[in-house]
Design the sequence.
């Protein structure tokens, strides 16, 4: 990494995402279908998702998918109940899914081992075949993103999203065909980088940023906020649109920069009252989403139309990754190697 120019590695890995998505749809799909058959046979009554950081946002996306598409109750793990308090819940008939780029964090491994010992069906979704989490799990899926060298996760995030979507789609009897257009669409979105460069100039000297969305897009703003904070060190606060109205809206005024994600579908429709309130507050509002929602904003980035809402997060994060990159570069920082970060976080 020391021989690369600042930002070179992150930019390259952002650009690799269409190829990664294509690889998953071709090479990864058979293994995903096999895992889905094993899960179907187990007939889980509940799903428990375990993750940290970027992968936690991917798990949050999976929570929406499983609850909406499968009608399966889903919870997100509080790993300290296992690692600090040594809880041993009864996990019979529970799908215990761990999502991790590296599969190496000690708390992820410990929780997975506990889940397996307590009767859960354990499934690891990682980018490192043979990782400790994979070894601790009964089933595993490789997201096939290839080595990710920049510290901020980009291609592994969208690879996790697509892998999780294909898993859920297979569980409901789908063939994955709704995702076939994603690699080409992703390439088209990334090719519009000049639009993002213009947007990034708005935040070069910002002191804070608020991001908001609802539904499937909520994990997107959580991930975008994380990317912005870890690369540019700009405080970025992600809120569900509903939660934003329950108090935090008070901190928004006519000089407050706000980024909203409002794609086509129920989530974008549910966000409309929030967008109206932001307009009333005079916020500097940038919208990533449908042409209809972007039209009413201060500025924005229009996403391709006609995409199923549940697949939209795979596309809508792309300009936000580029936004984090360009805000960071405009501040004279290196997004490849943010301070105080490591690729494998040793949480216990």
Sequence:
């Amino acid at each position: 990494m020391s021989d690369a120019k600042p930002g070179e590695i992150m930019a390259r890995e952002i650009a690799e995402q269409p190829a990664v998505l294509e690889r998953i749809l071709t090479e990864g799909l058979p293994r995903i279908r096999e895992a889905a058959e094993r899960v179907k046979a187990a007939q889980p009554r509940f799903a428990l998702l375990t993750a940290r950081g970027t992968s936690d946002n991917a798990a949050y996306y999976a929570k929406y998918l499983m609850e909406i598409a499968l009608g399966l109750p889903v919870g997100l793990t509080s790993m300290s109940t296992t690692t600090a308090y040594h809880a041993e819940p009864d996990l019979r008939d529970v799908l215990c899914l761990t999502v991790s780029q590296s599969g190496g964090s000690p708390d992820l491994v410990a929780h997975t081992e506990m889940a397996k010992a307590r009767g859960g069906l354990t499934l690891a979704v990682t980018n490192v075949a043979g990782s400790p989490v994979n070894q601790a799990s009964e089933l595993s899926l490789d997201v096939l993103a290839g080595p990710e060298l920049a510290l901020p996760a980009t291609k592994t995030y969208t690879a996790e999203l697509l892998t999780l979507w294909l898993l859920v789609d297979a569980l409901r009897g789908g063939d994955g065909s709704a995702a076939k257009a994603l690699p080409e669409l992703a390439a088209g979105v990334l090719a519009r980088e000049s639009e993002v460069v213009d947007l990034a100039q708005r935040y070069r000297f910002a002191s804070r940023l608020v991001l908001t969305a609802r539904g499937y897009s909520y994990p997107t703003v959580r991930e975008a906020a994380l990317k912005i904070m870890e690369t540019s060190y700009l405080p970025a606060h992600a809120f569900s649109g509903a939660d934003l109205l329950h108090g935090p809206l008070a901190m928004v005024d006519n000089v407050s920069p706000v980024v909203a994600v409002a794609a086509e579908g129920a989530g974008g429709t549910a966000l409309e009252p929030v967008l109206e309130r932001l307009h009333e507050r005079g916020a500097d509002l940038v919208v990533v989403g449908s042409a209809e929602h972007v039209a009413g904003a201060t500025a924005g980035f229009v996403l391709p139309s006609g995409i199923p809402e549940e697949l939209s997060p795979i596309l809508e994060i792309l300009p936000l990754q580029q936004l984090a990159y360009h805000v960071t570069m405009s501040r004279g920082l290196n997004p490849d190697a943010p301070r105080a970060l490591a690729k494998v976080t040793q949480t216990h």
Q: What stands out?
A: The chain has two domains: 8-179, 192-330.
